[in-house]
Amino acid sequence: MTETVKNTFLFAIVGGLIVLTGFLQSWNSALLILNMGLVSAIMAIGVNLQWGFAGLFNIGVMGFVALGGLAAVLVAMPPTTEAWAAGGTGIIISLLLGAATVIAAVLVRTWMHAGPVRSLAMLAVIVVGFFVYRAVLDPSVEAVEKVNPAATGYLGGLGLPVILSWPVGGLLAAGAAWIIGKIALGLRSDYLAIATLGIAEIIIAILKNEDWLSRGVKNVVGLPRPVPYEIDLQNDPSFVERAAGLGMDPVTASTLYVKLGYAVLFLIVLGVLLWMAEKALKSPWGRMMRAIRDNEVAAEAMGKDVTRRHLQVFVLGSAVCGLAGAMMTTMDGQLTPGTYQPLRFTFLVWVMVIVGGSGNNFGSVLGAMLIWFLWVQVEPIGIFLLELATSGMADGPLKTHLLDSAAHMRLLTMGVILILVLRFSPRGLIPER
């Protein structure tokens, strides 16, 4: 079996599993798995750029995904005019003061000679700047969050088409990655992992606590969509008539229509990113990145700026994750910061990359589709199997315990799959060429 035939067969198996879900469960479930699998594939490509191309161990993926979700709010939601009038100007001024403080501290460090005087001057600039920044920010934030807190209590966005938030999410994540990379990319791989995890937690903590920015844990609901809301389709007489002509009720038809619309958009984005990633992998830049990954010392001896190249690929991979975060939030129609769990879902994306094949873009896509399918389906399958296994048992603590254990089937299955792949195909299902 040639490599192309084998890879096509693997993708056909995953596609067959999704189609089988449509026949055995519902096409709504199948399309939801497909759409989330496509978004997961984009995240996996972003991680593969960093790890598969350059060997950067980033476990702060959810922080960049969350920034993409924030972009959907900042771009697409209408501005809250009352909140802007109450304290919007003060917040903007305070943010500028904060940036000016950082710039002033950098200038002091640059212009003055090293020594205790420079350290004291930098400390004075930072302390004074911090108190001035908070003196302007705090009352402005309080005024904004008092404006109809049950429904708004935040500044809102720009009211632009939501699809524009997808590239903006990538840019926002790329900007954050550049700042993080300038600080952390000099660290060794294990320390870089710890630093990126901590930074992801900080980003998510900011989203949860700064209500003026995106309502915090109150969540932003009713985000605009690039496809219609189901309820709008159900209230459209022409759509209802077309659904009846197909023998479908309007509720089912509307959900299928929306999910199919997202599937087309996500496939286009994934196709473009996959094409670009393959071009990058086969280019001189891609060969240089893999040479740096395999032996940094030798690459530096050949005159390559390793830190600069690491920063490039770190920014690119994070931008792809930010794009995926904006797409996911758009599909959900809401921003819920509490759902971004760095350890849990970063682990899942890493499993996708490792199982699919680190360093292979098509492997990352395959791993993402397969692992997401299993993540969704393993728990109900586990419940069915445990109910079948315990059907002859008398009611009691043991039977209850076994049935309650179905909730742990997901993580158990991910661990077993990871072990099997590392044992029998350590380079993944579609290894790097």
UniProtKB/TrEMBL annotation:
Database matches in Pfam families: BPD_transp_2
Residues annotated as transmembrane: 7-24, 30-49, 56-77, 83-108, 120-137, 157-179, 191-207, 256-277, 311-331, 343-362, 369-386, 406-424
Record has Transmembrane as a keyword: yes
CDD domains named among the record's database cross-references: TM_PBP1_LivM_like (cd06581)
Localization of this protein: Cell membrane
Main location: membrane
Protein's name in the database: Branched-chain amino acid ABC transporter permease
InterPro entries: ABC_transp_permease (IPR001851), LivM-like (IPR043428)
GO cellular component, one term: plasma membrane
Organism field: Sedimentitalea arenosa
Keywords from the named record: Cell membrane, Membrane, Transmembrane, Transmembrane helix
GO molecular function: branched-chain amino acid transmembrane transporter activity
Membrane topology designation: Multi-pass membrane protein
Keyword Lipid biosynthesis: no
